[in-house]
Amino acid sequence: MERRTLPLILAATMLCAGCTSSAIRPSATTPPGTPALESRPADSTSAPASTLPTGAEPVNLNPADFTADISHPYWPMKPGTRWTYRDVDEKGEVQEVVIVATPATKKLANGITARVVRDTVRSEGDLVEDTFDWYAQDSAGNVWYLGEDTAEFENGKIATRSGSFEAGTGGALPGILLPAEPQVGQKYRQEYLKGEAEDNGEVLATGQLVEVPTGRYSNALLTRDTSTLEPAVVEYKLYAPGIGPVLALDISGGAAREELVKIDKAAPKDGTGPLGKPNP
């Protein structure tokens, strides 16, 4: 999944209290208005060895083991669902982020058929970024991130297509968005294209409590997102069961906060237009 930063300075020690996946400067205190997070006591034993891919580790994926119908409890991508986020950076600048799980699928170079998810960013109504993300779920329940077709815009025109990649082409490798059964200590790559995209995830905690404009959620999943190419950048993400990502916080390398402000049903054609014209 494309990593995006969100505005707010938050102490890592506060977020991980009781613990055994865009970034923010760490702070020793919690800013006013920051949602409190609670966690279950950590197990005294570490998580079992993960079979999830890390780094540049190759994988041999059988397309027959995958489906575009994603039912992961921490982010069920039911076609027609729309998530709207408010993204505020360290300067107080606000962007609207809209994610739509479209009815469309795409067969990728590695033979896997993926769900097409539209991710659109606007500032004061102007389009600044538009992306087709591709996800699929394997028979074990892991959700894989298989690439993106993305563009950034300036004055209504494409400024760059940097960041686009497709698993199975040009050395790009697929990664994990969410493990099937998240366990504290699991580490995995989210995407890999040497020198271009080397993002990683780690499960920090389950059983979290988080509050955003759409409500208060219990039993949330807390992950830590990093990039091998930008070691100073760290982002925490919280996923609510049955909902998906509800809050992302930069904790190093920036100061941003992105929170879920609305979840609803999109119209059949929403998010299905060509790149740069997400419709609407």
Q: Would you spell out the secondary-structure blueprint of this structure?
A:
Blueprint: H1 12-15, E1 66-67, E2 81-88, E3 94-107, E4 113-123, E5 126-138, E6 143-154, E7 157-160, E8 165-166, E9 175-178, E10 187-193, E11 197-212, E12 215-227, E13 230-240, E14 244-252, E15 257-265
Antiparallel strand pairs: 1-5, 2-3, 2-15, 3-4, 4-5, 5-6, 6-7, 6-8, 6-9, 10-11, 11-12, 12-13, 13-14, 14-15
Your description of this structure?
This protein has 280 residues and is mainly beta. Helix content is 1%, strand content 48%. It has one helix spanning 12-15; strands spanning 66-67, 81-88, 94-107, 113-123, 126-138, 143-154, 157-160, 165-166, 175-178, 187-193, 197-212, 215-227, 230-240, 244-252, 257-265. It has a 15-stranded antiparallel sheet that branches. The longest helix has 4 residues, at 12-15. The model is unreliable at 5-49 (pLDDT under 50).
In short:
The protein is mostly beta strands.
Query: What spatial form do the alpha-carbon principal axes imply?
Result: globular
Instruction: Note the beta-strand portion.
Output: over 45%
Helix content: under 10%
Q: What is the domain tally?
A: 1
Roughly how many Å apart are the termini?
22 Å
Radius of gyration from the alpha-carbon trace, in angstroms: 18 Å
CATH hierarchy, class: Mainly Beta
The CATH architecture would be Beta Barrel
Number of continuous helical runs: 1
Mean pLDDT: 85
Return the CATH topology: YmcC-like fold
Assign the structural class, choosing from mainly alpha, mainly beta, alpha/beta, alpha+beta, or little secondary structure. mainly beta
